[in-house]
Amino acid sequence: MRSDAGWDLDAVRADFPALQEGLAHFDGPGGTQVPSAVADAVVETMRSAVSNRHGPFASSRRAERLVEQARAAVADLVGGDPAGVILGQSMTANTYVLAGALARTWRPGDEVVLSRLDHDADVRPWVQAAARAGASVRWAEVDIATTELPVEQYDELVTERTRLVAVTAASNATGTRPDVRAIADRAHAVGAVVHVDGVHATPHLPTDMCKLGADLYATSAYKWYGPHLGCTVGDPELLETLRPDKLLPSSDAVPDRFEHGTAAFAAHAGVAAAVDWIASHGAGATRRERLRSAMTALARHESVVFDRLLDGLAARDDVSLIGAPARRTPTVAFSVAGRSPLQVSADLGNQGICVWSGNYYAAELFGALGLDGAVRAGVVCYTTVAEVDRLLAAL
Fold it and tell me: What domains appear along the chain, each with residue ranges and CATH number?
């Protein structure tokens, strides 16, 4: 089945062995399934001779190649520099490391600007680091009706004392896509560092961190069909100025100094394989070009499927949609009259339909909305219109 968007859905779905179990996966915002190429790359690495890095022998050189290939792949995916790609346990872990390093440069009276729209992984590390440094936190608020993040408020939020602005490229709860570039321009005008949480945005559209104005861009491989590994891409010149806590004998080179412990080499192989799998669905002379082509086609496919889902939910009198952003990823949060989000999620789960309930770590957003949580459904590369109809019928 080739969609009108040019996305070969049958071929894509055939690459995912997990889909043969028959579940309808609308849980993609929390993590996607894995294509065979990624699983094969992980298994092949675990069956091969791989030693720790920096050794003068073949199995150690293989480890070096795995790390280099993963860094290059992530850089191609987001438009960054491989020399600035940090590969860690998770996006949360990476952000804590960077927050600790950046906070060493902050002084009492300095300010960080955060957003109520963000996942807590782009909130709490900065809040805690600011408290230790004696810096203050200023908050960008969401529009309660739309869950959009008005840019104009940053004119007052960003001051000469602003040292960091952290903002999401897309809400993992409602899909809201704020105007990151406009926010970054305000931050850069006063010399502040811009950290962009791209975890939810990266799987759904072509990404160019430089055009977004991100000095640091975070993403998670398991949201774009890879293994559980966090990636933060920074400007190498910025990273050179930061001194994170680290073990004395470990490398002080950038980006190694930000990566604690022995690398998960099999996961690194999976990261490169996931990027290559995405690129295989695009056209172009370079992997970067193929990725942009593939992600453009993927975004069109997801838009068609998501419109069916959003229209179907909006047509129901017993469903209340959370937010109405003008720009969004294919993700929606909603509630069903007379039933808790957990009940809805459990009942759909009993029918083989996977959706999340709760606040999905978007604690500040749900606090601003005055809600304990909601049901969340998301569309990804392998979601079909038939699955949407199955969800709507089950509701």
Answer: 9-34+287-394 (3.90.1150.10), 41-278 (3.40.640.10)
